[in-house]
Design goal:
Elements: H1 4-12, E1 16-17, E2 22-23, E3 29-30, E4 33-34, H2 36-40, H3 43-54, E5 64-68, H4 71-86, E6 93-97, E7 122-130, H5 134-145, E8 149-158, E9 172-177, H6 189-192, H7 204-214
Parallel strand pairs: 5-6, 5-7, 7-8, 8-9
Antiparallel strand pairs: 1-4, 2-3
Amino acid sequence: MNDPKIMQIFADAGAVISDSHFVYSSGRHSSVYINKDALYLHTEVIAQLCSMLAQPFEAEQIDVVVGPVLGGIVLSQWVAHALNVRRSLGETLSVYAEKGADGTDKKFFFGRGYDKHIAGKNILVVEDVLTTGGSVRQVIDLVRRQGGNVVGLSALCNRGNVQPADVGDVPIHTLIKITLQTYSESECPFCQQQVPINTELGKGRAFLARQKAVG
């Protein structure tokens, strides 16, 4: 069961939105959206949540925190900071994995010399919202190819019932878990009822643009 205090933090920041018609990055539709970007506006909120993300892990055992662009950059910084507050020796570093600069290559890689800080290190991977686990699985695979040891995955929200097997058998720690009813475009009741698609959050704007191009 979710901690009511954590749920209240999300609610107060406007990070859980319902009663609309959203399109996710996966292409599936739902009436509920986890607006993690609303959390990033508030540094004290993010600092508090990232301290919770770091809490289950021994500070001295984590050498590097890795997050995927873009939101994972913020999380990796604050989680590493929370770990360093508890460390008596050494330092936990924060790096991030990025995608192709031209936007066409969707594979993650370590740029800016960050790859030099992965091999032989204990790595904590962080993410904001887990839907299918696909993106964070890519990051975990990248860390392993670089010789890093992934000790865990810590995320703000698991909205897709993602399991360790979905992310390379890595233990998962999440602050909240939300079970959402999602639909494919063909079965979506909101599409059938012609409920307007939300274009401010999610991928609704891109979805409508593709529909217009096909039509």
